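User: Fold this one for me? It's TPM domain-containing protein.
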Amino acid sequence: MILTPDQQQQVIAAIRQAERETSGEIRVHIEASCPDGDPIKRAIDVFGHLGMHQTKEQNGVLFYLAHDDRKFAILGDSGIDAKVPADFWASTKELMRRYFAVNDYTTGLSQGIERAGQHLKAFFPRASDDINELPDDISFG
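Assistant: Here's what I get for TPM domain-containing protein.
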């Protein structure tokens, strides 16, 4: 397993912290290898499988990681994609890549999640009647 149980809890805590002030939904999916070699295509498949396209404001963000293949992708739904700056996902990936390069997946994921949460908060602030539409746990392939 790429993350120990404690590290998994750290990532889940980062998701919960990021979602505390936004209606946005963040998920993490981890698997050993990317089935077709294209992390974006795989992230799109996983996004649909996890039902992330069904959020009310289309503001879900998926962090996809295929650790053995050393590939990852960040996929935002149309609601968040329409609002973040054009280079947002690329700069977030670059931040994460620095940690992944030294096999620090916990910090890399946590930093990316925190950054996404800040932008989600700016564009999709949490309403008083907000409900958590998607689970905060990590899914594994």
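One thing worth pointing out: Residues 105-123 form the longest helix (19 residues).
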